[in-house]
């Protein structure tokens, strides 16, 4: 979850690497590879890349629409109560039977 990534990014990156069967070696960790990946993939870095600040779709919409503030819970500033309820219903429907629990804010 995004909240877990924001709280402990290094641990979550390592978990992702292990899941993808590409775990970091001790040498990679000691040489700063994990920290460099976190830096390169940070919200600040990704949102400030030239392609994301100047690029546009063929429809004319800017790529900046993919970036808001990168803060936990910021979606609440964009969704109405009806939108939240509809999204929660869709999530529950799609993930039913997987044993996942969702907390709605």
TrEMBL record:
<comment type="similarity">
    <text>Belongs to the sulfotransferase 1 family.</text>
</comment>
<dbReference type="Pfam" id="PF00685">
    <property type="entry name" value="Sulfotransfer_1"/>
</dbReference>
<keyword id="KW-0808">Transferase</keyword>
<protein>
    <recommendedName>
        <fullName>Sulfotransferase</fullName>
        <ecNumber>2.8.2.-</ecNumber>
    </recommendedName>
</protein>
<dbReference type="GO" id="GO:0008146">
    <property type="term" value="F:sulfotransferase activity"/>
</dbReference>
<feature type="domain" description="Sulfotransferase">
    <location>
        <begin position="1"/>
        <end position="99"/>
    </location>
</feature>
<dbReference type="InterPro" id="IPR000863">
    <property type="entry name" value="Sulfotransferase_dom"/>
</dbReference>
<dbReference type="InterPro" id="IPR027417">
    <property type="entry name" value="P-loop_NTPase"/>
</dbReference>
